[in-house]
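Data availability (excerpt). The following record was deposited with the supplementary files.
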Amino acid sequence: MEDNEEDVQNGLDTLLREIWKKQPEKTERFLSKWKDKCGRKIIHYATEKMDRDNKAKFQKTKK
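Predicted structure:
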């Protein structure tokens, strides 16, 4: 999740998006834990199928 390699992030966001379709609760718990530590691209694409309110939960927390 902390890897900056674009191909790794592409794979992770695709994997998380597909898992979310089958197990949304588990995926959302996982994303909540990582939202402030992982690359923005991962969160952006992993949440692209979610509705706007759901996506907002995964925006980085401003410090």
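Summary of structural features: The mean pLDDT is 90.
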